[in-house]
UniProtKB/TrEMBL annotation:
This is PIN domain-containing protein. It comes from the Bacteria. It comes from Synoicihabitans lomoniglobus. Residues 5-125 form the PIN domain. It holds the Pfam family PIN.
Length: 139
């Protein structure tokens, strides 16, 4: 079985918006991945917000979840204290709630890679010191 992929907002927007700078890259990466990719509610909320002007993009966004390409695999209420700690630790970055959720998910799924376009993930660490395995356009 392949290692899990945790997907961030950037690749989802890139996949659903052909005008996005990373569209071709995200599409080619997706072809090498096994569904489902894991994510959290905060990432889906950010993605929906960024696609709000794209009716077709919003329909495709919903289909990612209903077709089980993307799976919600995180409970903010169960992980709230860890999220608050991460947000405090990286307040100078600043870290978004979605980023904190993704970092925490990478701690819970230790063999996972994070699929992102966000360069802040080069600075974030899982479990305090461990580098997060990334699928990023600059790698």
């Amino acid at each position: 079985m392949a290692s899990p992929i945790i997907v961030d907002t950037g690749p989802l927007v890139a996949l659903l918006d052909r005008r996005d700078h990373h569209h071709t890259w995200a599409k080619s990466q997706l072809m090498t991945m096994q569904a489902p990719m894991l994510t959290c509610e905060s990432v889906l909320a950010e993605t929906a917000f960024l696609l709000r002007q794209h009716d077709r993009g919003l329909r495709r966004w919903a289909a990612l979840v209903t077709d089980e390409i993307v799976q919600l695999s995180f409970s903010m209420s169960d992980q709230f204290e860890s999220l608050v700690s991460l947000l405090a630790k990286y307040q100078d970055t600043p870290m978004s709630l979605a980023d904190a959720c993704i970092v925490r998910m990478s701690e819970l799924h230790s063999h996972a890679s994070v699929f992102t376009t966000d360069s802040d993930f080069f600075h974030y660490r899982r479990n305090g010191r461990s580098v997060i395995s990334l699928i990023h356009p600059d790698r």
